[in-house]
Amino acid sequence: MEEENLEYNEFISKFPQTVQHMWLAELTSYKIGGLADLYIKAENILDIPKFVQIAQDLGIRYYLLGGGCNIIFSDKGFRGLVIHNKADKIEVQGNKIVAESGAMLGQVIAKARKHELGGIIKMIGLPGTIGGAIYGNAGAKGVEIGDFVENVKLFDKEFGVKEENHDYFQFSYRTSILKKTHEIVLSVSLSLPSLNAGDTAPEIVRFRIENQPKGNTAGSFFKNPTLNESAGFLIDKAGLKGLEKGDIRVSELHGNWLINNGNGTQEDVVSLAREIKNEVYRQFKISLEPENIIIDEYGNKVDI
Ligand SMILES: Cc1cc2nc3c(=O)[nH]c(=O)nc-3n(C[C@H](O)[C@H](O)[C@H](O)COP(=O)(O)OP(=O)(O)OC[C@H]3O[C@@H](n4cnc5c(N)ncnc54)[C@H](O)[C@@H]3O)c2cc1C
User: Fold this and answer.
1) pLDDT of amino acid 3
2) Is residue 293 a contact partner of residue 303, using CB atoms and an 8 Å limit?
3) Could you read off the pLDDT of 26-80 as tens digits, one per residue?
4) Which residue out of 28, 44, 51, 69 has the highest number of ligand 1 atoms within 8 Å of its CB and is therefore the one to mutate?
5) Structure confidence at residue 2 as a pLDDT band (50, 70, 90)
6) How many angstroms separate the CA atoms of 70 and 221, rounded?
7) How close is the Cα of 131 to the center of ligand 1, in Å?
8) Tell me: the pLDDT tens digits for 261-273?
9) Which phi and psi (to 5°) does residue 243 adopt?
């Protein structure tokens, strides 16, 4: 611990804007998570490689945070440095949008609409950054971000900055190769079709308002096990809507959404999610896998 503090001090001396003991709950849509030892904002996209390199040289564990809309941090916080991606420049070049990875998907969509570009408009209302969207191949209404990715500038602590095109990412339902490689998206170039009459934003927004629960959540907790059977349908059929653990409950409106009533913890989420998974398996012999990312205080994935 003593040694780790010395390394923290060294990092802070290089980057005096570093915050110590930052509440992670404030940075996530679930409002869950204890204190991160260190926290720093990356306002400029090239800050990210700089922070990662120094953290790595000092042996400090790091975690890159985007919008915090798909992550459930530990109640014990994070033993290391949380780098908060705030680099959000967006440029339009013909039918292409080039965005820094900290740009909110909503901002990218707004810019696209302004320039009569469509496609991604179906994801209107999907929160989080474009970097986080690429990591998990976020999608809605039959489209996924991967459908529009042309190429991406990545940072990897071993190889530095490199560019990769669409095929490299092996996009499929709510996943990309980044879940294995842990490379960081610095910026992305999206190729978009022209906006057409079917791209009616108000209808999509209305659908979200009417069908999505309100409150502290990160959207769908489990992935849909098949194209035909949604996790929400199975959870509903299993009679689990409204089930509660601590201050976390299964939404009555949408069975696959877990809501933090206010004082919910990661422990509550994990215990509720395990009960849901076990019950769905007991009744239907279908094993649900989480879409939300749950990590312990050392950044390791917590299995459900
Ligand atoms: C109300 C609500 C509705 C939602 N609806 C949908 C939906 O319709 N469809 C859907 O797919 N999802 C949905 N989600 C989930 C969430 O919006 C997406 O998963 C989103 O893409 C997460 O982006 P983020 O920036 O918040 O990622 P974060 O939660 O900050 O991070 C998630 C993961 O991505 C990694 N990551 C973040 N940025 C980068 C980067 N630049 N490079 C590499 N890795 C990175 C992080 O390290 C972390 O492992 C919803 C969430 C909420 C709260």
Assistant:
1) 47
2) no
3) 999 999 999 999 999 999 999 999 999 999 999 999 999 999 999 999 999 999 9
4) 69
5) very low
6) 9
7) 8
8) 999 999 999 999 9
9) -60, 140
**Predicted local distance difference test score (pLDDT) of residue 4:** 53
pLDDT at 199: 74
- Residue whose CA is closest, atom 14 of ligand 1? 219
Q: Quick one: CATH architecture of 2-85?
A: 2-Layer Sandwich (3.30)
Q: How many CB atoms lie within 10 A of CB 274?
A: 13
CA of 209 to the centre of ligand 1 (A): 19
CATH says 90-191 is which class? alpha beta
**d(Cα 51, Cα 182) in Å, to the nearest integer?**
16
Annotation says 101 is catalytic: no
Average pLDDT over residues 278-303: 98
CA of 219 to the centre of ligand 1 (A): 10
Please report the atom of ligand 1 found closest to the CA of residue 134. Answer: 21
- Check if CATH label 3.90.78.10 holds for domain 213-294: yes
Annotated catalytic residue, options 29, 101, 220, 251: 220
Q: What angle do CA 242, 247, 248 make, to 5 degrees?
A: 50
Q: Give CATH 3.30.43.10 domain extents, the chain.
A: 2-85
